[in-house]
Design a protein that fits this description.
70% of the residues lie in helices and 0% in strands.
Length: 335
């Protein structure tokens, strides 16, 4: 039997892939010697970190939504509640709500109320945010502190303050208007008519929402390169031209996302509307959340209230679906 031997040239480097002196066989690069299980753990670590938040969301939001959906298919009033009876009535609650003129009247009112508030919030919030960007350090700090304090005030506390301000006998607003010459406003009842009640609620909601828009918009303006403003000034662009050609394109994604959030927040606002006048006078200022509460808890028809609340969610999804598609499409274009 012949034995074949090869002579290794000491001056020639080892071939690529062949183990040389001091090299470990089977290892071709860093990290290849790590156990396979460690790579899988690293890949699943982000999902494991999300599990507590997902579990909390399912418990706090998912389960109540499921229970509310089951309740919407039941005929549940005080008798069934006391006797622990479960009377399934199918889609009767939904059919009764969708064929009711009151439901559609409240729906239209809620959509108009949301549109007016969102427009005012975005216009005033944008102006305040641009003002923050142009103020000096001290004035910016003072204004930002006031905005944060207004934003941090609890909803019920802010509503109580506005009830005091617009009180008919001892309210500050009536006193100021009387001193300015409108003596007929001395004892004016702001919650006596639909328009004046909505005016108070709108002022309250806009006042609570402006800080969010203004502070976030000011933060967005700090990301705009100053060189763009300098170039626009050299081209002879005035202030309005610089805003439309430089500021607005950078702020457009923020404005779209903020409008989306404000539509959701205003449409589902319940404490402000209910605490001011409980949907009065004569149920003329009810929005869909207040309408669901009064029909469900107030009239003790809990199945109907659950059905109206789920229809409110569907209407809100319908209102925001098209807008959300625009936002997502813009994000894809930017990528």
């Amino acid at each position: 039997m012949a034995v074949v031997t090869t002579r290794k040239d000491p001056g020639r480097p080892a071939a690529a892939g062949a183990p040389g002196r001091g090299a470990t066989p089977g290892r071709t690069g860093p990290g290849h010697g790590a156990p396979p299980g460690r790579g899988r753990i690293a890949a699943t670590a982000p999902y494991l970190l999300l599990l507590p938040a997902l579990a909390a969301t399912m418990v706090l939001l998912g389960w109540p939504l499921v229970k509310n959906g089951m309740l919407s298919f039941q005929n549940l009033n005080m008798r069934q509640l006391i006797q622990h009876l479960t009377e399934w009535n199918g889609v009767n609650n939904y059919r009764e709500a969708l064929t009711s003129e009151d439901f559609w009247r409240v729906t239209v009112r809620s959509v108009v109320f949301t549109a007016v508030n969102v427009v005012l919030i975005m216009v005033l919030g944008t102006l305040v945010g641009l003002l923050l960007a142009r103020l000096g350090t001290k004035m910016r700090l003072l204004l930002s502190t006031g905005l944060v304090l207004a934003w941090a005030m609890p909803v019920i506390a802010a509503t109580t303050v506005f009830q005091w301000l617009f009180a008919s006998r001892f309210g500050v607003v009536n006193w100021v208007l009387d001193k300015l010459g409108w003596h007929s406003m001395a004892d004016y009842n702001w919650t006596d008519s639909q328009f004046s009640t909505f005016f108070v609620i709108t002022v309250l909601i806009v006042w609570q929402s402006i800080p969010f828009v203004a502070i976030n918009l000011y933060a967005a303006t700090t990301t705009i390169p100053k060189e763009l403003y300098e170039a626009a000034a050299l081209d002879g662009a005035d202030a309005w031209r610089r805003f439309t050609s430089v500021t607005l394109p950078f702020l457009k994604p923020f404005l779209l996302a903020t409008v989306f959030l404000e539509v959701i927040w205003v449409f589902k606002s319940f404490p402000q509307v209910f605490a001011i006048n409980e949907g009065g006078p004569d149920r003329l200022t009810e929005t869909l959340p207040v309408y669901a509460f009064i029909e469900g808890v107030g009239n003790q028809h809990y199945g109907m209230g659950a059905a109206i609340s789920l229809l409110t969610i569907l209407i809100l999804l319908a209102l925001t679906s098209y807008y959300l598609r625009i936002v997502l499409r813009q994000e894809e274009d930017e990528l």
